[in-house]
Specification:
CATH superfamily: Creatininase
Largest sheet: 4 strands, parallel
Strand order of the largest sheet: 2-1-3-4
Order of helices and strands: HEHEHEHEHHHH
Number of strands: 4
Distance between the termini: 25 Å
Strand content: 5-15%
Number of domains: 1
Number of helices: 8
CATH architecture: 3-Layer(aba) Sandwich
Shape: globular
């Protein structure tokens, strides 16, 4: 069910053991061919497809479109909260739910730049409520909840990029009128190793002149439909694991 559709008495009546998912995304550049609202559109569709399967067993908060996108800020159209401000925003969203008794909370992510601050949020929240053993505070990016390249042949990429084969395919399926130009003429921008196993500080212009990373030229809407189904099924499975958590074990 969707929190935005409920009255406050209806929310008050809900079972507090329900998993609550807070979808978090972004508004930021997506190369020359995808709109700045791509991450929010894609996560919104994943949630829309997942919701019927868990309608009475999970609650979805409204999608948070503002993300931590400072690494994209050189590209016009990007809207971003600075990391500390963003961390505080997510912290307060979770606190709103904790205050009224929900204790199984998932930040469901749709943008790579949100990963580090949101992991910090769930870590800090757990420290703040260290005396409680009933809390399940989680972060997960939707693309990590399934492995579509193992389920279907034909994918060039085995990981999410940016305005890449995966995102472009999903946008071709969801809103083809928003995909600009002939993506088959685009060229792969390699992921690169970034001095792995070390972690390198970077901005997007360090990695790509166009704004995309990955292989959008291999996208098609059939892949997009498969990806949506795979990712939404992954969300449903993860929420079921949250629902079945015994309230005490580590995993």
């Amino acid at each position: 069910m969707f929190l935005a559709d409920l009255t406050w008495p209806a929310v008050q009546a809900l079972n507090r053991n329900l998993p609550v998912a807070i979808p978090i995304a972004a508004v930021e550049q997506h190369g020359h061919h995808l709109p700045v609202y791509t991450d929010s559109l894609l996560l919104g569709e994943v949630v829309r497809r997942a919701e019927p399967a868990v309608r009475d067993r999970a609650l979805f908060a409204p999608l948070q479109w503002l993300g931590n996108s400072h690494h994209h800020i050189d590209y016009p159209g990007t809207m971003s909260a600075s990391p500390r401000l963003y961390l505080d925003l997510l912290h307060d969203l979770a606190e709103n739910l904790l205050r009224i008794g929900f204790h199984r909370i998932l930040f469901l992510n749709g943008h790579g730049g949100n990963i580090i601050p949101c992991k910090q949020v769930v870590f800090e929240l757990r420290q703040n409520y260290r005396a409680r053993a009933d809390l399940l505070l989680l972060f997960a990016s939707y693309w990590d909840l399934a492995k579509p390249f193992e389920e279907r042949e034909g994918f060039t990429q085995h990981a999410m990029g940016h305005a890449c084969e995966w995102e472009t395919s999903m946008m071709q399926r969801l809103a083809p009128h928003l995909v600009a130009g002939d993506v088959s003429q685009l060229q792969t921008v390699p992921f690169g190793d970034g001095f792995a196993p070390g972690y390198r500080g970077w901005i997007t212009k360090d990695r790509t002149p166009t704004g995309h990373i990955g292989s959008p030229e291999h996208a098609n809407p059939e892949k997009g439909e498969f990806l949506f189904n795979s990712f939404s099924a992954g969300v449903v499975k993860f929420l079921a694991e949250m629902e079945n958590w015994d309230g005490g074990c580590w995993s």
